[in-house]
Amino acid sequence: MKFNNRHNTDTDLQLRREFEQVIDRYDRVIRKVCYFYATDMATFDDLRQEALVNIWRGFPKFRGEASLSTWIYRVTLNSCVSTFRRSRRQGDTVSIDRCASLIAEDDEKAEMLREMYRMINRLGASDKALILLWLDEHSYDEIAAIMGEPRNTIASRLRRAKEKLLNIKPEI
Question: Domains of the chain: which residue ranges?
């Protein structure tokens, strides 16, 4: 059932209510993923809006083959990675530390988080996604489902991404 072809306003209203409940439930996850790819508040807002549009477009077609949280994570991640890759091709990237105003923590913890984000920002888009999912305490199986890759591939790629992070020197 496609949204554009439906004429039943009750169905539309029900779909909208379900969508709003899902967004309320998973907004923290959506924001966190978008934050990792944001360069500033405007970019964060654009990424979040793009993710919400893509979730809305796919919502009526969600078949439940994965958990809803996995699907939300995947749609949001794919939206951000696609936007990130487009902006990289256009040479339009800025360090993620400019998005520090999104962090509402004490000064010392905020500075540590900014430094961590600066280091993660120096990774490629795919490695960023892996680290983000790992930091969010997803299992390798969950990460594999979200990224659409075999579990063993995820384990190897995550190990390499962690090694890259260990070799990145903090900015002073």
Answer: 7-167
